[in-house]
Structures are given as C-alpha cells and as structure tokens.
Amino acid sequence: MEILTVDRTDDALLASLHAVVERSDAASRIEPDRRTVREFVRDMRFSFPGEHDEAAVALVDGRPAGMVRIWFPDRDNLDKSWCMLKVDPDHRARGVGSALVRWMEDSARAQDRKVLLAEVFVPVGQREDHPAGRFALDRGYTVSSIDIVRRLTLPVDEDVLAGHETRSRAAMGDAYEISVHVDGVPEELRQGVCDASNRLILDAPTGDVEFEPESMTPQDYETRLGFLRDIGVTKLTAVAVHRATGTVAAYTDLCLPPGDPDVVDQWGTLVLPEHRGHRLGMAVKVANLRALAAHDPRRAHVRTMNDEQNPWMVQINKDLGFQVVEEALALKKDL
C-alpha cells in the first residue's frame, strides 16, 4: 500500500476517487450524498477563500482504496483543521483507514494545528457500537457533540405552512421584511448575510469545542456563489431584514445539488440573538420552502442536521414535519 498526495490535475485519478467516495458513502450512510463526477472534480480543485486543504490517496495494487482530505482555516480558528476520510468497503479492516489517519494527523501537526475535527454518521441507536464510531474512538478521538440528521418530505402540507406563516407574521408585526433570493442575495444584503453566517459557528452548539467567529467577506461570498454556479448547484436564500436598521436579522439557505435530483440540502440558518423571540427562524424557513416549491417542485425531500442540544432549531424542524434519519457524531482529537 502507498499513501500519496492527490494529483488534482489527474482527471482519471479524480474520477476513481469519486467512485471510492460513492461506494464508501453507500456502505456507511443511511442517506448518502450523491454527486456527479463533475461536481466532485470541481470541488477537489476548489479552495474557498480563507482556507487551504491537502488530500491523500491510499493505493493498493496501484488502485485507489481510500482517500482523506483535510482543511486548514487561514484567517480564524488557526488551531483547528477539519478532515474527511473515505475507505472503499472492499478494503476496510485492512489498514487502509489507519494509514490515512496517520497521514492526516501528521499533516495537521506539520501545520501546527492542535485540534482535528471530523464527523461520523451512524444509525439511530448505534452511537456506542457502530464500526465507524469505534474506529475513531479506538484511535483517540472523542465525541464532542451529536447532530441529528432529519428529512422533510416534499411537498409540505399547505395547512402546515400557512399556519406557521400566520403565527410568524403575528410575532414579527411590521418590524421585518422577508425576501427570498436565488443564487445569492443582492449586493446591499451581502455584508449582513456574511456577518450572520460568520457567527453561526458561535451560536450553534458545538459541545466542548470552542470556536472563533469566521471571517467570510462579500468578496468571499461571491467566490462561493461562482463555485456553486460552476458545479450546477442552485441556492435559495431567505432573509429577514429589520426595517428600522436594515440589519439582516435572520437567514436560511437551501441548496439543490445536480447530482441528486430528489434532494435539497438545508445549509445554515441563524437568527441574531438580539432579534430572537419573533419567530424569524420559522418565517425564513417557510418562505424558502415556498420558493423551493415554485422553483423546483420535483424535489422529494429536504435534509438537515442540528445538534441535539439546539432545542429551538430542532423544534422548528419538528414543527415543519422533519423526521429523524440518522445521527452524526462530531469528533475531535487533541494533537
């Protein structure tokens, strides 16, 4: 077995790695992500502003058997790195994963990172004994928090949406304006959306891992939008703007991946602390679901993840009809 740095100019290698990732997820997830080869290749060649990444492949008899990718923030949270490990199911329990973990940890130490973060998906009720979780725990990783993966079947019942919409309007009064935007908010809202997004990592529960606010700028935001357009992802963003100040008080994102025409991915949702108590979280989610139904009524369900210690967002999702699918163990290792 060889562990080599991924040559991102090698189209054939990247296509082979896509197949490894697809097979790994199909064997490991109840609801795996599905991406086209084009999406995967473009993603492997993209670096979001403010971070860089490294990737390695495990070759067995000259063929990819697994891969790892590790991301390094460059402007904030400089003590941390995030990682993703995928091993072809035909090569598990043969040392491939362990070798890639060693490479990954050496890479993090070489860049003076003190904390390595990852996540492992497990079926409900198997937090303690699932093989993927045991693999991590046996190598010194600990569970810092647990996210619950939920699915909302589409279309959402109109009576459910209308009821939540009515209650949200009553709680908001005339103080807020709700709007929905396709493939990015207009220029005048971008700084506000960036400000809200940058504090998401602070406000969402993260167990015993402490974070600094992130540092996305409007220019970074445009770069990310360009990347999403390039791979064919449509993004719907609903915002609540405080009329008196022009502040983006709440936002939520839905993303429609081209590789899975049935799925919609719920990305970030945040209500600024000073604007909570007006049902803004529900208001922006309902607005986005209505926009989704109009934009692409063929989609079958929405996926989301929330920390189990986030009762406010969990309750919103339950009220909308989301059902539990699987769990994600948020893992950390002090290096």
From TrEMBL:
GO molecular function: acyltransferase activity, transferring groups other than amino-acyl groups
Domain N-acetyltransferase: 1-167
One Pfam family named in its UniProt record: Acetyltransf_1
Keywords tagged on the record: Acyltransferase, Lipoprotein, Transferase
InterPro entries: Acyl_CoA_acyltransferase, Bact_Acetyltransf, GNAT_dom
PROSITE patterns in the cross-refs: GNAT
Name under which the protein is recorded: Lipoprotein
Organism: Intrasporangium oryzae NRRL B-24470
